[in-house]
Fold:
Amino acid sequence: MLHYGDYTPYVPVNLDGNLLPFLLYTGAAVSVLPKGKLLPLLPKPLTSYSCPETRESRSITAFGGHLVAVEGPYVFPVEVLTHKLMHKFYVLDSPTPFIAGFDLLVAAHLKSMQSAALCTRGVPLPIHSCLRPWTPFRHR
Structure:
């Protein structure tokens, strides 16, 4: 299992009672859960997390522009730092990390700060240096 530490793009997320390392991936429009890692952790069947939009299979565009089949969305209770919410996730039947897409970062009101911390709603929260600030390139 991946750990949090210096220079890692992971944030701890409590997904229905399970503290998991989620890869922060702002290039992903939606958040994705790996089916093989997810199912053994769930206290109830996956279908119990269904919502009206849940489909057995739909295609999303992955990194590089190719299409991948996912199930969902499924709605899970999550806690990201101090923010609790119900959030929609897609399930991928392929080995992948737990991915916090741009949708989860927006829903949890997360943003990075120059102080190597992550914050929610403007309140800095130390997370053991698991995120380092991104410094944009400066044109000279």
